[in-house]
Records
---
Amino acid sequence: MQATEEIWINGEFVPWGQARTHVLAHTLHYGAGAFEGVRAYRTAEGTAIFRLDAHLDRLFYSAASIRMPMRFGRDALRAASVGLVRRNRLEEGYLRPIAFFGYGVMCVSPEQAPVDVVIACWPWGAYLPHEMVDLKISRYPRIPPDATVADAKLTGNYLNGILAVNEIRGTKYHEVLLLDVGGHVAEGSGENVFFVMGGQLHTPRLGAILPGITRATVMRIARDEGIGVVERDIRPEEAFGADEAFFTGTAAEVTPIRSIDDRVIGGGEVGPVTRRLRKLYLDVVHGAEPRYREFLTPVE
Ligand code: PMP
């Protein structure tokens, strides 16, 4: 991780090295934190944060799902994000807002715990630094929607993904694919998944997955391009027979999938639909597609 100069904590910009919390902070022990992963990109008119409002919407949804009172409103967090990227002179990179229960009480209920809100940013390149990725289906199912708030971006939910990626350590696989408890394809540990079948996109319906902002962006771009999108239950055997497959995520952007459980998808190369959508997505985030300007929050 590459440090920048400052981190925003509870309304103040603090030097990176002094951005500390207490070891008895509630969220460190019980895993109830709401967070986001956001990217900023270089555009022709300077750096812009991509889909900041959609990320803030999801952050407030995640916080509300654990009855966490947010100390700061949307305008304050938008201004803090923009100010932080500018003060750190970050041209391109990643932002990590997080709201967590801090120090003061030690019991499961966070009711009496204070809430701390932090935003950090730093330069960050490709999350899955491979031209294509090979996936292993995890033996851990994706947390069922009713067991926690599975569609919120909560720190504790990531234990599910950590267990899954621990299984592929030291193997040739680059990432995992989790199925839902019904055995349908759900998502990666930090990505949503799409399959190209007969020229259309097929992707798991909402329910057992994180409603990805990149997923929504790619669906919008595809439909605008006249490519149909179907959200449905997808069995792994159907996925193996897809013409193409790719992951989406803020960090992963659009990452083509080569194989799942050693079954090569399509011809094992980046397919034409994936290639086209990946290029369009990268054009959109870099401000080269005027139709999607509304997605960009300039920092200057
Ligand atoms: N699923 C999971 C489990 C994730 O952690 C992420 C990354 N936030 C995604 C999907 C993709 O979501 P987004 O496109 O909003 O980054």
---
Amino acid sequence: MTIRICPSILNADHSRLKEEIDRVATADLLHLDVMDNIFVPNQTFSLEECQRIIKDSMIPVDSHLMIANPDRDAVRYAQAGSSSVTFHFEASQTPLATIANLKSNGVRVGLAIKPKTSFESIADLLGEIDMLLIMTVEPGFGGQSFMADQMGKVEQARKAILKLSKSAPWLQVDGGISLETIAIAAQAGADTFVAGSAIYKAQNPVEMISQLRLAASI
Ligand code: DX5
Ligand code: ZN
């Protein structure tokens, strides 16, 4: 299985973001957490800031939208140059239309579910998306503890993905991923891993990225 490591710049030093982005250029995707203080009780980057980050990044940008109205707004992040745009199922009234709209704007489409949302609720959409994001913390903040009780959902998703005849969507986990937890998520079937604190708190982020990659591959 191809393993992808996605550093989250949420808890990077925002006063020198360009340097912080450059420090993780050996990763596969740069994970950009967009929060609007409505869908989650925290606010992060404006659209203009996202455009700058996307321009500054040498690696493709994976935008994770924790916003209240993705059906209206998600497409802006595709047009800003994201490589993939992930929106929350819980915030969407018309997920199929939003998926189609994003696809027609040329991005990979991710669908995210919060810890309390079941896999069954999105099972019908699995064949329509390029990535499923199973949150392993409540969205909103970096530095929280990994929720191992989400692994049943990851296993369910992996089984369903294996049954799909179309090209398999990536299976991403986000929240509390570290050297201690990444193998647990990999064993359950995840192949794409967001890590914020683990990478940015490390002395050497490049070394941490390769250690995480190794730990997920075993
Ligand atoms: C949480 C964000 C995560 C966060 C992960 O809502 O979606 O991407 O940055 O941070 P860590 O790896 O510290 O849990
Ligand atoms: Zn995220």
